[in-house]
Design goal:
globular; about 10% strand; seven-stranded mixed beta sheet
Length: about 280
């Protein structure tokens, strides 16, 4: 039985409704900095970020986000990297614990998004050098100085200076981000099912002090990873840099007087042998 004119019109409109979004999606995939496989991974992130977690930005990102930089944020949920990815609008290379990169399920995904495997136990020279090379190429690295989820009501828990090490040694800025409203309920999978209203605030980029060969030798920043075992004072400059980040974050969170606590496996002492305070 031949189709009537109205039926043909309906078929044409239905085809356009299907083909137009597909064509629009393919066009963006071709123009995107992401590979097709990355687009498949990031599309659900984008849709969930906009529809389920209602991600919005309180201010405009700084111009430095289009160049090599370290994106450094507070950490309250397992899906926080998704929010930073949405903020960057281009590929972010995350430093991820090596055991996850070798996991049977998570490993292929992390390799696909070009994550940087790192050692939880302390300074990892190989991952630091890889992150430095990435930022020197004008790309972005993402890091969480808290190193674990903050389940407290405090704006920040103790922080480490790894992000500052990479920034100082590759001469790129740290871009602070405050993430508010991240969903979380006891398990790493819970945010996938929790609606939220996530707000992201960009801070002012923090540039490391320029280092000369003589200055680097004196402060220990340029050789921090290798010198850390021999000189317990060599982390001071990177600590100062990460403290600047932390002070911006707590100020954006409405707690400018919150004391910053540094976490370190080494109990550092000044040259007179007295222990240093760790709360700043």
């Amino acid at each position: 039985m031949p189709l009537e004119a109205g039926q043909w019109n309906a078929i044409v409109w239905l085809s356009l409704l299907i083909l137009f979004p597909l064509g629009y999606l393919l066009l963006h995939v071709r123009r995107s900095v992401y590979s097709p496989w990355e687009c498949c991974l990031y599309l659900p992130t984008y849709l969930m970020g906009r529809l389920l977690w209602r991600v919005h930005f309180k201010n405009e990102p700084p111009a430095e986000i289009q160049r090599g930089a370290i994106l450094v944020a507070n950490h309250r949920s397992s899906v926080d990297p998704f929010f930073v990815q949405l903020a960057a609008r281009r590929r972010v290379h995350w430093m991820v614990a090596k055991e996850y990169c070798e996991h049977a399920i998570f490993g292929p995904i992390l390799r696909a998004v070009q994550a940087i495997p790192t050692n939880r136990s302390g300074m990892d020279t190989a991952s630091t050098k890889q992150a430095m090379n990435i930022t020197k190429q004008g790309r972005l690295v993402g890091m969480f100085p808290e190193g674990r989820l903050n389940h407290t009501k405090l704006p920040l828990i103790s922080i480490r200076g790894g992000a500052a090490v990479v920034a100082a040694r590759s001469a790129v800025p740290i871009i602070p981000l405050l993430i508010e409203g991240s969903p979380y309920r006891r398990t790493v999978w819970s945010p996938i099912f929790i609606p939220a209203h996530v707000a992201i605030t960009f801070g002012t980029p923090i540039y490391p002090a320029p280092q000369t060969p003589q200055g680097a030798e004196a402060t220990g920043v340029a050789g921090e990873t290798e010198a850390a075992e021999d000189d317990p004072d060599c982390l001071s400059d990177s600590d100062a840099l990460i403290i600047k980040w932390a002070r911006q974050v707590v100020a954006m969170a409405g707690a400018p007087d919150f004391p910053i606590e540094l976490a370190s496996k080494r109990r550092r002492r000044p040259r007179n042998g007295q222990p240093r305070t760790r709360e700043l």
